[in-house]
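BUG: 3D viewer hangs when loading the predicted structure for this chain

Environment: internal workstation, default settings.
Expected: structure renders.
Actual: progress bar stalls at 90%.

Input used:
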Amino acid sequence: MDAALEVLRRYWGYDSFRPVQDQIIQSVLEGKDTLALMPTGGGKSICFQVPTMMRAGMSLVISPLIALMKDQVGQLQQLNIKAVAIHSGMSSREIDINLDNCIYGDIKFLYLSPERLKSELFRSRLAKMDVQLLVVDEAHCISEWGFDFRPSYRNIAEIRERLPQVPVLALTATATKEVRDDILEQLKFRDNNLLNKSFARSNLSYQVNLTEDKIGMLINLVKGCDGSVLVYVNTRKKCRTISTTLSRAGIKVGHYHGGMKPNERSQIQDLWLNDHVRVMVATNAFGMGINKPNVRLVVHHDMPDHIESYYQEAGRAGRDGDHAEAVLLYQKGDAEQIRERKLTEFPDLSFLREVYQHLANYYQLAVGSVVDDSFEFDLEDFAHKFQLRPLEVYHAIRKLKFFGYLELTDEFFQPAQFRFTADHLDVYEFQVANASFDPVIKVLLRLHGGELFSSPVNISESRVARLLGSETTQVQNILQSLQDRGLGIYQPRKERPQLSFSTPRLDAGKLQFQSNTYYHRKEGELRKLKAIHRYVKNQRVCRSIQLLEYFGEISDRRCGICDVCREPLSESDFEVVASDIRQELTRSPQTLIGLCGNLKQHHRIQVAQTVQYLLDQGEIVYDKLERLSIADLLA
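Structure tokens produced before the viewer hung:
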């Protein structure tokens, strides 16, 4: 593995591999089909990036997450490693150029979604590519038993037939035994080659708190944590309101959800990653691909839909190996509310056909037409035009995506891009002959140089406009005109969700939906909800043991740090903690963090729980400076 370590040091700056990474890399280098199970934050990408950089040829990486694809491509490009992604939001010409670069250029990584595997544009080029490794990220999506099954993942087996000598590396962070077996079968593994790291997290304390005052408990948990915090909620509205509530309680907090503008999401994400904001309140749109090692607390304000997503999100705490906590807040009725929501996510199949037909009319697409470009999609406008309910339309489109007919990005940002298709001499002659275009071309060349002639480059129209002292719209018009005259390719900035048709436009009445799969999936979702409900209510078995058992890893070793392993305070122990709290607060008012620090003889959670009880009883209160005080002393 010396050569692999050298590549790791040269590009990523690490001196050693994490557990199991070296075994996976060795298996890939030996040309074996490999299923790798690694917990969230375990470093899955290194397992295919290192062996790819050790050999000639490229890796084909299949992933369902556009944001993660773009993030990994960006990271590789910063390391001067050539990588491209193909996704909705790109024009057919951009896709064509990227595929050509994979054949004739020195691209090392091609990322694309499973839906794109059916594209004739892709298939016609695949045979000419020097593919040495087929990587399937989020491999659980190929299984009907997985928590995020996508029928389009079944297209991978056909691609394997087109690349018979190419090994496959399937990666996932969450897979039960049933799902693992299904992955091996669906991907046609030549050998049952499974490498996995234990799902156990010895530094992570899992806790479930039953409470009728989630906000009050959340505030106490956050104030009692001396470190970065991530709070998950299930709606954008809660994301905003809970963030506001925490801010009013004197907590430095930001919020993040898919409905925010891209620059807002990027800004608040950077503030949290750089510790300028201590607490992030977010929907599940936040976290994938985010590697912040010093998160000390993850709180689920709302019960997740299933254990797989809960495990992934909770696992974003304590990636540095130090003690961290994952707390799920629960109140009676939560499971039933989620069940009702789940039922609305599976509309009648006739409604799916109706929405598909409306979409074809909306974009004026004839039956049989092939459309490689994507369209900006305005849900509210579409629903209003056809007198439909937006939420029902949204779920219908999600299910049309599930069946492989559409692609939809819920949140999408693509900066403006430009590339010259004419050569240097032709561009120069055009500048001389067209003085009005000359300033814009000069600024572009000054900012981006010769790269503009080899590949699409991200540009900022507003920056170009500022340098020229002109309006952004004027720059945009000039760039569009350059494209119209055949000198370049201009892709304007995009911010709205993007929708594209994954197949030639079909007769809506002839759509095939595999109804058995559809209703089986519905029942599967309800079973998964029951599983996490059992986890929440089981106060007898160690939380870690319960999670390990769910993923097929049997253990009788109690973690010793979850809420089940730590017995509730006895009446006598409670009085000791309460007495110590009263004594501390009699000396002076204190923040909860300060109080926990001064009472290190007691566990932080025991102090926080006792504080909550004393607050409920009115014995202690928060003063105007958000410090805990004895109520009588303020009277």
